[in-house]
Structures are given as C-alpha cells and as structure tokens.
Write a structure and sequence with these properties.
The complex is a heterodimer of chains A (about 150) and B (about 725).
Chain A (H helix, E strand, L loop, with lengths): L2 E5 L2 E5 L50 H13 L10 H12 L43 H6 L1
Antiparallel strand pairs in A: 1-2
Helix pairs in contact in A: 1-2
Chain B lengths: L1 H30 L5 H11 L5 H42 L5 H13 L2 H26 L3 H6 L3 H8 L1 H6 L4 H7 L1 H8 L4 H11 L5 H6 L1 H6 L9 H7 L2 H6 L1 H4 L5 E7 L3 H13 L4 E5 L10 H4 L1 H4 L5 H4 L1 E3 L5 E3 L21 E5 L4 E5 L4 E4 L4 E9 L3 E3 L3 H4 L3 H5 L1 E3 L3 H13 L2 E5 L3 H17 L2 E5 L12 H13 L2 E4 L4 E7 L2 E6 L4 E4 L1 E4 L3 E3 L3 H5 L10 E2 L5 E3 L2 E3 L4 E5 L3 E3 L4 H15 L11 E6 L3 E7 L7 E6 L7 H8 L4 H6 L25 E8 L2 E8 L5 H10 L6 H6 L7
Parallel strand pairs in B: 1-2, 1-8, 2-5, 8-21, 10-17, 11-12, 11-17, 12-13, 19-22
Antiparallel strand pairs in B: 3-4, 6-7, 7-8, 9-18, 14-15, 15-16, 20-21, 22-23, 24-25, 25-28, 26-27, 27-28
Helix pairs in contact in B: 1-2, 1-3, 3-4, 3-5, 7-10, 7-11, 17-27
Chain lengths: ~150, ~725
C-alpha cells in the first residue's frame, strides 16, 4: 500500500506497483500537430524535409551538406516505383564528396545503396554503419529515434 | 558645477543674514509700532540701499558671476560634445583602409568646425583628462609621470596623427604607422610642445573621448611603443596594428554573413542550424579558446572514468558498446579555414581561434578583435558563456594560494586537474552543486588507487542542496560519501592561506582543513563584456544579456547559451547553465537568425550522475526552495544510470532523445551491476516542483527515457489535483 509523509514543505509518496496499475486519470492537453513553435520531426507537416532535425546530425550542415540535401530531397520526392532509382546521380555525387572527408564520413561499408531505405535516409548509402555512433560527428538516429521524432 | 556650489555656499549665509534682518525689522515694527517709528526707520535704512548697499552689491556680483560661469560651462559642454562627435566620426572613418574618401570627407567637416573648439580645447581638456589619465596611465604604463605632468600636450599629439591621414589617403596604413611613431617618441620630452602647438592650430583633434570611453584600445596598444602616453596609444592602436600585424590579420575575414562570438556548445548548435536552413551559408565562429568547439559534460564525468591512459590527450572516451567518441563536436576537417570561408563554393563553418571580440559596433554592424582586426557581419550571435566564479577569500589570499587553485571549466583545466590528481595527496573541492559533486565523485573514485584524499565542502546541508529537496539531498550526500569523498557540510570558508607547503582552509565555525590543492566550483559568472560597447541590456536578477523570447537582443543580434537571460513563455524569465539548454537555445538562435521567428518553446533538460547508483534527469525549474511532491517506488538492480546507458547506448542523455550518439563509460568494467541498496526507499521515482500549484519542474530520479512525458506536463502548465495520478504516467515501476 502506498503511504505518504510530509517533510516540511516536501511531500513524499511511496507507491507499490499495484497502486500504479490503474490507468492515470490525469488530464493532458491535446497536442496540436501544426503548432509552429514545436520542434518538428524529420518531415514537416507540409511534407517538406526538416533539415534542422537533430536526427540528421551534421549531415545537412557539413561540407557535403549540399550534396546530401539534393540526394535526399530527390529520394524523398521520388515517385518511381523503386523509390530513389532516379536519384543515382545525386547519390553518386554525394558519395564522391563524402569520400573526400573520410574522417567525417567513415567508409566502413562499401554498400553504397542509393535505395538506402525509406526512413533511414540518414543511414542511407555509404554511411549505414558509420552514422549511428562511431564518427566524432554526433550523428543521426537509429530507427527508434526516428520513429520517436 | 563647482562654481555653482561654492557660489551658493557663499550666498547662503548672506541670504540668511538678510532674511533675519528683514524678520527682525518686521518684528520691531509690529511690536513697537507707534513709539519706535524712528528706530524702525533707521533699521530700515540700515538694510536699505545706502547701509546694506555693500552686502547687496556683493550679492548681485556673486549671482551674476554664477550665471556667467554656468553659461560658459554650458557653452563649452555643447561645443565639446560636437567636437567629440566629430572626433569619433573621424576615428571610425580613419579605421577602415578601404574608405579613404570617407575619412577625408569627415576630416574636412571637422576641419571646418575646428575654429570654435580650438581656443577652448586646452582648458576644456584639462579637467576631464586628468582623472582618466591618472588611472589609466597608472594601470597601463610605467611612464605615467610624463603623462600626468603634461596633460596639455596630449591633445596636441593627437592632432598630428590625423594630419597625415588627410593628406595621404591612399597609403594610409603605412603613413599612419610611420608618422605617429616618431611623434610618440619625442612627445614625452618638452621641445615637442612647441612643434605640437603649431600642429594644434591646424587640427584640433584631441580624442580625449578615446581615453574616457575606450579603455580597450588602450589595452590593445599596450604592445605599441612603450613610451607612449595613454592618449596616443589610443589613436595609434588603429594605425599601428594595421602595419605591425597585417600578417596576423590576413587570416581574419573582413566580413562574415553569420558571425558567432564564442566557440562553445551554443555557438556550434547555432552554426549547424544555420547551415541546415540557409544553403551555402558562410558562418564564422570567433573564439577566445585555442580549441575547436567541444562539449563540456564529459570533462567532469566520462573522461575521468576512462580506462584509456591517453584519454586526457585525445579527449576520447569509450562507451559501453565499445565505440568511442571525441568531446569535439566535429573533427577539424569539418571546418573551413577562415581565409577560405568567403570563397568556398557551398559555404561552411570556419573557426577563428585564440581571438577575443573586445568591441561591438552595433550601428555599423561590426566587431573588433583583440588584435585590432575588424569583422563586419549581417547577423551576429553572442554565445560567450561565462567564466567560473572564484571565492573572494581565495582571490585575496595571494599568489601561492591562487597557484594551487583550479577554476574548472575548460579542457586545459581538466588536463591540469587530472595531472594534479596524480601528484598531490589531498584535493579539496569547494562547492556542492553539479560541478562540485561530479568532480568530487570522479576524484573520489580514483582516491583509493591514487592514495588521494578528496574533501568536498559547501555551505548547504547536503550535496545538490539547492536543487534537490532535503531528504533527497541527504540521501545523495551519503552516496557521494560512499564514493570515497570526505564531505564537510555547513562549511563557509573564512580564509585560505599557504603554510608549510600546504593550503590551510579556515572555516567560519573554526574548523581547519589542510589540503594540497583546491578546486573552486562556486558558480559561473556570465561574460557580458560586450554589453557596454554594443549597448545591450544586462539582466540584474539573473545576470547575462537580456533577450526576448526569441533570443534576440537587438535587430541583428541574438544571444544563446549560458550568457542569455531569456524569456521562457511557460516558466518566465530565466537563465540556464546546462548543456542541453546550450544546444536548444543555440539551435533556436540559429533558426531565428535564418528567419524562423520562433520563441523558446522546447524545454531543455539536464542530467547528472553521481556514481553508478545515483542518476537523474530533470527539466524546468528545479529549485529546492519550491514545495515538492515526490512519488517513489522501490528500485530494482535494473534502475541505475549504468543500466540506462547500456540500454539506450547513450551517455549524453539529452541526445538519447534526439540523436543516438556515442554512449559513455560508466563505472568500471566489472560486468555485473552492483545490487542497489537503499536505507530509505528513494530508489527511483519522480519529483514534482510546484509554483502556485502548477508543476514547473520535474526530476526523474533513477528513471530514464521518460523525458518527453515530463516535458509535456510542464508545457501544459495545468494545475493537477492529484500528482500521484500524474506520476502514474511515468510508469516508474517499469524499466
């Protein structure tokens, strides 16, 4: 059973697991998905890409940021059946750029799949393994965090 | 002013005398109206024109003199103002080498108006010149005597400098450098006075205002010819560095579309944000430090726990999953060199290290660096952070004590303390807040291996006494003790002295602590040195630059990070000194610099770990003076910071929310986590901080990865009847 004690102005409540089993009746305000103030996820409400999403890490702001933006935009708006298949050129130039900065974009994987993957754009192409953690670049998210954002 | 006062002082008794005289007359006439008519008449006559004539005349003369003096003073001030304004315009025009025509125009204008001020100048300058001369000459130069003795020659010297400027606009830099120098050398001796007098009649430019209003150029010019009196160096500072250090200037771009002052977390976050939103943006970061932007939390946490003996050098720390990361946000290859910034095709971020911005001209949208270089900007961010505070008793204690004191903030402080921890026998940390407690734990962990005694002392009753409610603060203190730290509470330092190769700390209650080295972790003083020159407001309650909800101080100036006192729409005006806030505010400032116009909305969080058993994340206003409601459950072995990092693979916990990053090293490499033992049941839980019954702050105690819920509750700002129900939202019993 939970019990409660008061230490001056501070109240302390101890609860057991059972106490907290019943769903909460605390009311939370509905979130407005179009709130302009809120930090947005990767894709903005109007469908555009949020280049400032923390999940992208430094991808859009680094030396190859321009190439990355072009490649990913192309992919995002691609209407091909095999999404992104019309963006090979963009991805190639991005890869070329990234090869010039091996410190920033470690090439652990030779897998340069332009079809990098639907949500895993940041982990697309050469950077599949390199992004998540190892590079000094505080880098983009795993799928878990992308989903969260 | 003086005149008025002295005049009044003289007048007052006179007035009193004449008034009492009148009164007496009145009384006499009333009381002895009939009989004493004659006497009254006589009395009246004594104060009439004939008898009191002498006194009255004196009275009139004095009043007249006062009025005249006042009039002359006012006239001088007004014309002096005009003259000062002209001088200032000339200085500004003279500085840039590319605008000779402007300088010419300005000097021409000033030359025209020179007639009036000329005559007044010598006398005018005497009064204001003396005081600042004395103070600054004493401070800056050894040869202060010639300066004080010949204040009148100073303005004249100044006159000579603009002269060549007017004549030879094109070769300005060279001419200015060569001409003033000979002038300076001989100015100290008397013969010059004559020559200079001649010059004076031509160009009455005496930037006395230089002395009064610009101490910084004086400091800049300290390296310029040593014999030069203060005022000269003020003017010389512009031409001289122009030639002497043109080499140094060559790597400083003259213009940067986005100028970020300060090279810390907020600045880097802003740079990233700007680059993301403005394609091809050219961002210049100017930092006093010699390091590229790096993050601070590992300096007091992970780097101390690293196995790698080279960690201090490389500043890399290993995570549980084996992956390493550096504390630098990006390796050097990420950045563009400052000289290339203007040319590189897609723009980039350049970092100018080892340079301090000393002056900001908001009207002209440019800043001046410590070496005299100037950079103009379109948008500017001030992210200067702060400097660690020191205890007054230590500052006054002398050099031996100061040598053995560390003010911890930067990489070099970490390296130095790490080295010291291996050399000394005893370290005392003064301060019981985040930094003090984290360092105490870090050093305490090493204490057994190194044979090091670690003492922590603070005025509160327990660690984090200003953040956590008392019961929790006590519990934390016990944990820190278990890390091997000798904690002394209720300790106010009275003085520190150096005796027998040891530091002796005397507390107010008489206790004496002997130690080898002191670490002062007593707060941060925000750096607001640019406020004066930029005309920015400094907040008196929280310190820092006062900015609005969009982090804007003035039209093209934003402030972020530790130095920003901003308006939080939900929680009110505040200033936050945490890593995640630097990231969030830096990012927001960057967005607003590229046109977003968004207010501070996403609440930043902070976290701390004190050993493997105590870790918490917090958000909002977490002040122990507020009433709190804490909801706790018994913790299992799984609820420790170590486990949290293993699970999410992150160490910088703010990033676990948005970016998966290198995790961190927690504790030793011993595999099984120790079972958590609690005397009281404060194993894990959530604590709500209330202000007027609204939750304004939340601490998640050994409960991780629930920050979004906490953020939501604060954002709602609702009054909840039963906080236990709110606590249910956190599922504290689960992992």
């Amino acid at each position: 059973m939970s019990y409660c004690k008061q230490e001056g102005k501070d109240r302390v409540i101890f609860v057991t697991k059972e106490d907290h089993e019943a769903p909460s009746n605390a009311e939370l305000i509905e979130d407005d998905p179009n709130d302009p103030y809120e930090d947005q996820g990767l894709i903005l409400p109007n469908g555009d890409i949020n280049w400032n999403c923390p999940c992208l890490g430094g991808m859009a702001s680094g030396p190859c940021g321009q190439q990355f933006k072009e490649a990913f935009s192309c992919f995002h708006y691609s209407k091909e059946e095999l999404k992104g298949s019309d963006c090979v050129e963009n991805f190639r130039s991005m890869q070329e750029c990234m090869q010039k900065y091996p410190e920033l974009y470690p090439q652990e994987d030779d897998d340069s799949a332009p079809s990098g993957g639907a949500d895993n754009a940041p982990t697309a192409s050469t950077s599949t393994d390199s992004f998540p953690t190892s590079s000094p670049d505080s880098t983009p998210a795993t799928t878990k965090n992308l989903a969260a954002s | 002013m003086f005149k008025c006062k002295t005049a009044w002082n003289k007048l007052a008794p006179l007035v009193r005398a004449s008034s009492t005289l009148c009164l007496q007359n009145a009384r006499k006439s009333v009381l002895r109206h009939g009989r004493r008519l004659e006497m009254v008449q006589r009395a009246q006559m004594s104060s009439g024109p004939a008898g009191g004539g002498g006194e009255n005349t004196l009275y009139y003369v004095l009043v007249g003199a006062t009025c005249l003096g006042g009039g002359v003073y006012a006239y001088r001030t007004v014309s002096g103002d005009k003259e000062r304004y002209n001088e200032r315009m000339i200085d500004i025009a003279n500085r840039p080498k590319q605008r000779p025509s402007a300088a010419e125009a300005v000097t021409a204008v000033v030359a025209e108006s020179k007639e009036e001020p000329v005559a007044e100048e010598p006398t005018l300058t005497e009064a204001p010149v003396e005081e600042p001369l004395v103070t600054e000459a004493v401070v800056e130069f050894t040869e202060s005597e010639p300066v004080v003795e010949e204040p009148v020659t100073e303005p004249i010297v100044e006159a000579s400098i603009p002269e060549p400027t007017v004549e030879t606009q094109v070769t300005e830099p060279v001419v200015e450098a060569s001409v003033p120098e000979p002038v300076i050398e001989i100015s100290v001796t008397e013969p010059v006075a004559e020559a200079l007098v001649v010059l004076q009649s031509e160009e009455p430019l005496a930037p006395i205002v230089e002395i009064e209003t610009k101490p910084t150029p004086v400091i800049i010019a300290a390296h310029v010819p040593e014999a030069s009196p203060v005022s000269e160096s003020a003017a010389v500072s512009e031409p001289a560095p122009a030639t002497e250090s043109t080499a140094a200037h060559s790597d400083v771009p003259e213009h940067a579309a986005y100028l970020l002052i300060g090279g810390g977390t907020a600045s880097f976050a802003a740079a990233r944000s700007i680059r993301a939103r403005d394609p091809g943006a050219r961002v210049l970061i100017v930092t006093e430090e010699s390091e590229l932007p790096y993050m601070r939390p590992p300096l007091s946490k992970e780097l101390w726990f690293s196995d790698d003996p080279k960690a201090t050098e490389t500043l890399r720390f290993k995570q549980w999953n084996g992956k390493e990361r550096s504390i630098y946000f990006q390796p050097p290859s990420f950045y563009v060199s400052p000289t290339d910034l203007a040319k590189v095709e897609n723009g980039g971020v350049a970092v100018l290290t080892g340079r301090k911005v000393v002056h900001m001209d908001v009207r002209e949208n440019k800043v001046k660096l410590s070496d005299g270089a100037e950079i103009s900007y379109e948008k500017c961010l001030i992210a200067t952070g702060g400097v660690p505070r020191n205890l007054q008793v230590i500052e006054r204690a002398g050099e031996e004590v100061m040598k053995r004191t560390t003010l911890f903030r930067k990489i070099e402080d970490f390296r130095s303390l790490e080295k010291i921890s291996r050399e000394v026998k005893s370290i005392t940390i003064i301060g019981g807040g985040f930094l003090g407690s984290e360092l105490a734990c870090a050093l305490g962990r090493r204490s057994t291996d190194l044979g090091l005694e670690v003492i922590q002392l603070f005025p509160e009753k327990g660690n984090m006494g200003k953040v956590l409610p008392e019961y929790l603060s006590n519990w934390t203190t016990e944990k820190v003790r278990k890390e091997g730290v000798n904690i002394i509470m209720d300790a106010v330092v009275k003085n520190v002295s150096y005796k027998n190769d040891k530091l002796e700390i005397k507390l107010k209650d008489g206790r004496l602590i002997e130690t080898d080295h002191v670490v002062a972790a007593v707060g941060l003083e925000p750096s607001v040195e640019l406020a004066k020159s930029a005309g920015l407001e400094v907040d008196s309650d929280f310190g820092g630059y006062r900015v609005n909800a969009e982090l804007q101080a003035r039209s093209n100036i934003w402030v972020a990070g530790d130095a920003a006192c901003f308006y939080d729409i939900k929680l009110g005006r505040r200033r936050v000194e945490h890593h995640d806030h630097a990231v969030v505010s830096g990012r927001l400032a960057g967005e607003n610099m590229t046109g977003a116009s968004k207010p501070y909305w996403h609440q930043s969080m902070f976290w701390s770990d004190l050993g493997p058993d105590v870790g918490y994340e917090a958000i909002g206003i977490v002040d122990s003076s507020l009433p709190t409601v804490g909801v706790f459950a018994k913790a299992t072995a799984k609820d420790t910071p170590k486990a949290a990092t293993e699970q999410s693979g992150t160490g910088i916990r703010s990033e676990s929310e948005t970016e998966a990053v290198a995790g961190t090293l927690k504790a030793e490499t011993v595999a099984p986590p120790r079972p958590v033992q609690q005397k009281e049941d404060y194993g894990k839980g959530v604590i709500f901080y209330l202000r007027d019954n609204v939750v304004v702050g939340i601490v998640l105690w050994n409960v991780f990865n629930r920050m979004p819920i906490a953020r939501k509750i604060i954002k709602d700002g609702e009054q909840h009847a039963d906080l236990n129900e709110v606590a249910k939202l956190f599922n504290i019993h689960e992992d």
